[in-house]
Amino acid sequence: MSQEGPTVLEGPTALEGPTALERFINGVLPENPVYRQLLGMCPVLAVTNGMKPAMTMAAATAFVLICANIMISVMRGLLKPHLRILVFTLTIATFVTIADRFLAAYVYEMSKQLGPYVPLIIVNCLIISRCEICASKQSITVALADAVGMSLGFALALASIATVREILGSGSWFGLAVLPGSWPGWGIMVLPPGAFLTLGLLLGMAEWASRRRAAKLRGSG
Amino acid sequence: MLTTVALILAAAILALLAVGMGYVLGWANRRFHVEVDPKVEAVLGALPGANCGGCGFVGCAAYAEAVAKGDADINQCAPGGRSCAEKLAEIMGVELEESLPYRAVLHCSADWDQRLQRMQYEGEQTCESANLVAGVQGCTYGCLGLGDCERACDYDAIRIINGLATIDKEKCVGCGACGRACPRNIITMVPFKAERMLVVACANQDAAADVRAVCAVGCLGCRACLRVAPDLISMEGALPVINYDNYDPTDETIEKVLEKCPRKRLVFVGKPSEEHLAAVAEEELPESVQADFKTTVDDTKWRG
Amino acid sequence: METVTSLILIFIGAALINNFVLHYFVGICPFLGVSRRVDTAFGMGCAVTFVISIAALLNWTFTYFILRPGAVVPAWVWQTAGGDPATQVDLSVLSYIIYIFVIASSVQFVEMYVRKFFPPLYRSFGVFLPLITTNCAILFACLEIMKHLQDPTKLWGLHEALALALGGGVGFTLAISLMAGIREELDLCDVPGPLKGAGIALIVAGILAMAFMGFMGVDKGVAGALGSLLR
Lengths: 221, 304, 231
What we know:
The structure holds 3 protein chains of 3 kinds. Chain A is mainly alpha-helical. Chain A contains 9 helices and 2 strands, in the order H-H-H-H-H-H-H-E-E-H-H. Chain A has a two-stranded antiparallel sheet. The model of chain A is unreliable at 1-15 (pLDDT under 50). The model of chain B has no long low-confidence stretch (mean pLDDT 81). By secondary structure, chain B is of the alpha+beta class. The chains are: A mainly alpha, B alpha+beta, C mainly alpha.
């Protein structure tokens, strides 16, 4: 093997990690916050008894995640290590207050239905984890791409669970009837046990799909 | 006016809260300060960090604390080995005594065909579950071959080959996970005073007639080994046990013991010798079989 | 006597009927993460109960005196500034920020205290304390208390707030310990591959939630029994 001089590193260097585009794509399916990282389960179970509350929650979380990521990324030079979790939490709390007041002002009924789960976005592990892992170390564009990707992934997860629960539970989707009136409506689906069961089974399906993909890659490689 | 007052009040409250909490936490930090021994940090850094539990403590952190306090020996980390013990000796400023590598040894050598009275076991394919059921195989002491030890090993050092757990001495680090996983407790840790050590490759303590009924190769308890080397070997039931404290690799009685055994159950384990390697040079490595059960119920038979 | 009845009802409501984990879905992350062995699960439950009570105490005080509409401190400031007594200064918009700040600081304080004065206790559940700061259950308890401090005619006192907090903590401990016991048994079972870990845990949680639904209506029964007992 001849020595030709220093090796040239291809793609993003070891220090930078994934690019903005890669982070965006990562957040949707490969590192989906609910199905792969198992973060942010509380709202996922609580608000998915219908598509409307689920999508409202997804929008609120997206707003908070994007704003918080941008803010933390702007401030990242000033963060002291032992205070950073507190700073993240306070920033997120501010944006959640804004989102909560906005929802209460413009969609009051929905805000009442969502109840305490909008303020609980503050302690959504997903947002704090993205701030810690990405926003506090990367530039604004990368943090923004990461936030948008993760928000899309989160919305996708919420939509999948809400679809199952709403269709089976009330025979409707976004409030529009999709099943005939004779559908008895599985009450359990819109109650807490239904949430757990749906999420558990969907997680199993996602795991099965990813194992099949991994086996195919192993088999062909 | 309302807005201004509200804004000023809000800002004042937040500022007061921040300052107040800052003071309280700062005071608490000094008042409740816990002295952390810098030695603990240093020891923790020197340890491999595998958290295997082989040292007898719950994790590397617990062992580091014990060493820093002087409550534990510095040579108890098996994966760390000698280099780690040397580093710890440096940090703690003590002399390193000769410490021996402990490696896992399985006290059974019968594969599927040599075990007699085996039943078709359709239950949970784990040794722990099979051990709870009577009659899976004739010998109630020996290896069940369902792989609990294989799954417990983080270093890929133990494989089930032909129904018998086989340990790769090169990969084994002596953490003891396999020994803890084995429900029949037939994997023990043996100090390797030489590259090849004599071990008793059987665990069956029953009398000869009973052993013959359940195993084609098991130890009969004839005591021939005991007669040759009475200081090295003691009996537990009808099973010889080697005392490794008295084991001297240069002693010739060890070879004699090996020859005297009619069943050839006293064997050398460890680094393979040149002749052994040459003898199997042509053969392929047997595949490690993973249980790929889709169901524990055999649905091809109608159970009516 | 009515107070005692209402306190017991609040406690049972938070612990069993509207169990924080199985009915309100708060505290799922530790519920799934720390529920593999009964002793760690119980330790986590105790830590959560402890932190919830302290957080409820501090945040009730803050909300009662400063943050609710018509609270004493803003009203006094407004009055001294010469404001119109018909309108109120409502600082409840600061609630979320102050709650989370108070929770984070008090957890840090408690952790330092326990580490200094109760080392064996710190070793058993001290490691959970920083985890609990971002636990939904604590913030949820504070939000529930805030909900009951909005209506000036039906304000919750400190005793009711603590009853809710303790009930929530006990309910969480109960749920997580049950879950841990079940998961320990699940280790020996033949769980289908894709469902191992979180999948089967959630399905078991669903069945537990169904079981806890059986407690609905218990509060009426208890209220009736207590009423006739204390008459």
